Amino acid sequence: MRLFAPVEELKGIGPKTADTLKKYGINTVRDFLYNLPKDYENFEKPVSISEIRPGKIVIKGKIDNLSMRRAKRRNLSIVEGIIKDKTGSIKVAWFNQSYRLKQFDKEKEYFFLGNYELKNGRYSLISPSAALVSDIDPSIGLNPIYVAHGSLKSSDFKRLVNKSKSIFDEIPDFLPTVAPGIRKKALFYAHFPNSAESIKKAHDYLAYEELFELILAAKLNRRENEKLKAISIPFNLAKIKDFLRKLPFTLTDAQKKAAWEIFQDMEKNTPMNRLLQGDVGSGKTMVAAISAYEAALSGVQIAILAPTAILATQHYQNLNSLLKSFGIQTVLLTGATKEKKDIKERIKNGNIDLVIGTHALLTDDTIFNKLGLVIIDEQHRFGVEQRQKLALKSPEGLAPHLLTMTATPIPRSLQLTVFGDLNVSVLNQLPKGRQKITTHIIRELDAREKLYPVISETIAKKQQVYWICKAIDDNPKSETTSVKTRYEKLKQLFPRAKIEFLHGRIKPAEKDRIMTQFSDKEIDILVSTTVIEVGVDVPNASLIVIENAEMYGLAQLHQLRGRVGRGSVASYCYLLTSGENRPSKRLQELEKSTDGFHLAEIDLKMRGPGEIYGSLQHGALDLRIATLSDTKLINRAQNDVLKFLKTPENLLQWKELMQGITKYQQITTLN
Ligand code: ADP
Ligand code: MG
Question: Does the predicted model carry a pTM greater than 0.85?
Answer without folding.
Answer: no
